[in-house]
Amino acid sequence: MKVLTSVVTGMVLATGLVYSTGAVAEQQRVDEQLQVPADVFVKVENMRGEVSIKGTADSVARVEGVLDEYATGFIFALDGSTLTIAVEMPQRGNFSGNDVTELEIWLPQSAELTLEGVSSDYAITGFNSDVRINTVSGDITAKELQGDIRLNTVSGDVFASEVGGRVQLKSVSGDIDDRNGNATVADYSTTSGDIRVATPATEVRVESVSGDIELTLSEVKELAAKSVSGDVEATFSLANNGRVTANSVSGDVELAIRGELNAKLSAVVSGGGSIVNRLNEQRAEESRWGVGAQLKSTVGNGSGVIDVTTMSGDIHFIKK
């Protein structure tokens, strides 16, 4: 049975839709709550504005704040174990007004969340469940999450702190920053933004096209870092039988390695860059054609693999 706790429409909001005729839209205030299952699945939809979501120890869902001035309605509905929280907007329109949605939401910390937005910022904290966030031009801020975490924005930034489990952070033109987490597997990608990460994840994948990559890692079993025109900097220790690959076209690659290293090294510069090796006495061999260089060496028992390539950038191996 569907329990529809609150659907806000009303004449004020309906009148506000006729903004092309000069009608003045007004913001509607909401303050609702209801009992929900501890493992409730929550869907949140908001076109514009800011939404803050916090996990609590209670089996209660609560929302308060103001709706977008162009909103046509608000849904706060529980259907079985699925809770829908949605700000309804017209299908079409030039939403140029400054009075956007501002909501605070409290949910059980074990709730599973899927959040959708257009130009909507999301801030979420305190959940030990799976979280999915997709927004177009908004920023995403996440803190104290544990689960399967997937945060995706097109032109916004992604900020994560104390996020663990399986972590996937993506942005097209924004930056990605992940600090103080406890992820086991981490995946980061951006097109034109920078990526700065400090994580204990043992499996890490990082990719950027024109942005720089800066990684501070613990002991890695597998690391794959790729950039086209940006630089790649990574500090880590390598597990036995671990594998590291780093690639850049025109950027530099610097790998700073802590502790005992057992790996086969392979480095290739095919253009005008150079290779600097501080891990052992082996030096790179320059191409007999005068352009490019390569290095092949074994450090320790050679159980792991470190493979680095760049076209016109420099490669540096450093012992920390």
TrEMBL record:
Keywords tagged on the record: Signal
The signal peptide, as residue positions, is 1-25
**Locate the DUF4097 domain: which residues?**
78-316
| InterPro entries linked | Toastrack_DUF4097 (IPR025164)
Q: Name one Pfam family in it.
A: DUF4097
Protein known as: DUF4097 domain-containing protein
Organism of origin: Pseudidiomarina insulisalsae
